[in-house]
């Protein structure tokens, strides 16, 4: 078998076109969705991410502003900046780019963000909402994984899903989302015994670890769907995922490449969260606005 390659770049492009229509519709109703990104320090990878987010948000018609603070910014200054964005009615989504420079308390900063503007979905209120099956803002990468499955007709209900990685950013929220869609979910981590056997049972495998080629092609159950969240650089400086893609593609039914798989969906979901936050802040039905843009596709 040779797997279908799930083209995340094309899918994200389609999502972003729909979202641009949502933004236009919101503007017709007098709402201009605004995203504020806070970047502290000079981390080169973060600079690239923030530039990409900025461009994608502008292309979709969002009002986007980036607040750049020096690496020597102290906690009180950062918290004050977040408070100001919380109060700013033109800002519907706030994203503080992580990781923060050493010495700053990430948890305290995340908790300072108004949960209604927390487009990263990391505030404890949103984490609780997700776990409890209530409405809230969902972390972007896991939301992107679900969207990829849905848009490729890959069923979740009743199926066996195995997630490798238990981070707050990817593994745990994705488990909650798959569970909410009636998947049977197992989360593996660095202490899991016989990872090969657990992964081998999965109809849906998600790798979110950050170790190149950790998930071997030979582990994949024939016909399984494989989502590779990992972003690593190999010795040659090339971007690679956590899965041995070529070998896994021999057995899988469908697989995401790296780059061009899950990654592009993350930014698209950030835009979606900002639109949802803007709609809700103005008493509008976010689901209805998203559905009408999707129906037009
Ligand atoms: P993390 O470091 O916070 O978590 C990694 C997880 O992997 C931990 O739960 C750990 O228990 C588990 N783990 C470590 N070694 C393991 C092993 N040998 N076997 C099994 N599990 C093991 O990382 P994260 O923030 O969740 O990110 C994971 C990867 O996904 C990274 O490569 C990151 O760059 C990438 N990522 C990509 C996107 C995207 O948009 N595509 C977004 C977020 C993260």
Describe what you observe in this structure.
The chain is α/β, with parallel strands linked by helices and about 300 residues long. The chain folds into two domains: about 30-115, 3-Layer(aba) Sandwich (Rossmann fold), CATH 3.40.50.10860; about 140-260, Rossmann fold (3-Layer(aba) Sandwich). It has eleven helices and eleven strands. The chain has a six-stranded parallel sheet. The longest helix is centred in the first third of the chain and has 21 residues, at about 10-30. It binds nicotinamide-adenine-dinucleotide (NAD). Nicotinamide-adenine-dinucleotide binds near residues 167, 195 and 211.
Keywords:
single chain, Rossmann fold, binds nicotinamide-adenine-dinucleotide, about 45% helix, about 300 residues, three-stranded parallel sheet, 2 domains
